[in-house]
Amino acid sequence: MGRRVLIVDDSGSSRHRTRLAVEALGHSVEEADDGRGGLEVCEQSEERFDLIICDFNMPRLTGLEMVERVRRLPGYANTPIFILSADFNPDLRRRGKAARVNAWLRKPLSRESLVACVNRALVGEEGAA
User: Fold this and answer.
1) Which of 25, 111, 113, 120 has a 20 to 30 Å separation from 16 between CA atoms?
2) Which residues are within 8 A (CB) of 64 and not within 5 positions of it... i.e. 6 or more apart?
3) What pLDDT shows up at residue 124?
4) Interhelix angle for 90-98 vs 63-70, to 10°?
5) Which residues are CB-neighbours of 72 under 8 A, at least 6 positions away?
6) Which residues contact 14 (CB under 8 A, 6 or more apart)?
7) Distance linking the first and last C-alpha atoms of the chain
8) What is the pLDDT of residue 1?
9) What's the confidence (pLDDT) of residue 107?
10) What is the 3-state secondary structure (H, E, C) of the chain?
11) Within 10 A of 38 (CB to CB), how many other CB atoms are there?
């Protein structure tokens, strides 16, 4: 059975490519176009998301700020969250680790690395290989 995945990115084309890859794995996808919107979707959703994939550099709330706030919501303390970024500086990675970001994926995003990370994050919940 597919899982619920939230994709948060201010780039429509990036959201679309990520959506296609995740849906091809059989998961359902919801989208938000910035960090504040992603946080609001999590707050207002009747069911929690099983995975969140968000861009780092977004207006209103960065991906990292969104992750920090989402982690405080009921049910999201252990939800897998991936950050997409072209910036891999050590300070950001340390802040991401402190916020419990599960994976940093390099932009431009490789479909293969995204699929591998999504499968790894959701396999444990599904108990399948």
Assistant:
1) 120
2) 56, 83, 92, 95, 96, 99, 101
3) 58
4) 10
5) none
6) 55, 84, 107, 109
7) 13
8) 59
9) 86
10) CCCEEEEECCCHHHHHHHHHHHHHCCCEEEEECCHHHHHHHHHHCCCCCCEEEEECCCCCCCHHHHHHHHCCCCCCCCCCEEEEECCCCHHHHHHHHHCCCCEEEECCCCHHHHHHHHHHHHHHHHCCC
11) 30
Reported pTM: 0.92
Amino acid at 126: E
Tokens of 22: 């995740």
